[in-house]
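[job 4471] stage=fold_predict status=RUNNING
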Amino acid sequence: MKGLILSGGKGTRLYPLTYTSAKQLIPVANKPVLFRVIESIRDAGISDIGIVVGDTANEVREAVGRGDRWDVNVSYIEQNEPLGLAHAVKISEDFLGDDRFVMFLGDNVIEGGISQLIAEFAHSDWNSQIVLTRVDCPERYGVAELNDKGRIERLVEKPKNPTSDLALVGIYMFDNSVMEAVNTISPSWRGELEITDAIQWLVDSGKAVHPYLHRGWWIDTGEPGQMLEANDLVLEEIDYKIEGYVDRDSQVGRRVTVEKGAEIINSVIRGPAIIGQDSRIVNSYVGPFTSIYHHVVVEDSEIEHSVVLEYSRLTRISGRIQDSLIGRYVTIERSPIKPKSHKMTIGDHSQVGIL
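[job 4471] inference complete, writing structure tokens
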């Protein structure tokens, strides 16, 4: 089997973080989501992986390379416009050939990996396997309707009046019959070739499409709240270890990871939390469900339930920062200028809460 990862799209729901960065490279528990997807596919025994890229192709190529660090072979497929998931399959035909494959959205995080799913599909005679999970807002997803025998009857992309709460998780398995489907269907009202239409074509053509109901957690990290939720869930699963320096005046909880080169000075860290490589936490408090990426400085400040990306600085902040996504090379500090006031330069689509 082969793997196909979709890593295009503009990530508009994560603006301004994604103005200059691929959304799939935003870290969850200090590891980019795209890296987690690659590891899931590799752990399922697949070594040939194609990544469909768009506007952020150069950044993805630079971060992933040829896949050597994961012992996989990575190829890149250019998608000039985001014309739908089925379009991504269509343009990947040369890479996929006649092989069975798993398609994984590069901004999805799923509990438990996909090894069992891949094994089931690889040893079956199914033409496709789709992963479903129950959601509260099915109108935001592609949804599947099952009959009394648990077989797929109908799939609808983002229905206005959903009749099912079974959403398609961003993981799909196909044999090469899907190529006929994606070359037959027409664009939807959104102007895209929908993967739901391709799967519906398989169902209507009598192909064996097996629904798998995933009962663990699954997060589409396309929005800030979802990114924080994914960070929460993954932080509770990682192996905690102290590889950096913690001075005797600091209190570091049991469920805390301190990566190599990081320093904790006269500070309190309560887990689950992770402090990235070469970051410094000085005279500060880092609370539960916080990920501090590499080369970050937090000094004389408090933060919890947040994600801070690389090379940012938080210094002398009065009050606690929480429920926040803080981007790269950001400086947040208390100004010495009097009278006291809030002074800031804020980019488009930013959100700021001031107490």
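[job 4471] summary: DSSP finds eight helices and 29 strands in the chain.
[job 4471] exit 0
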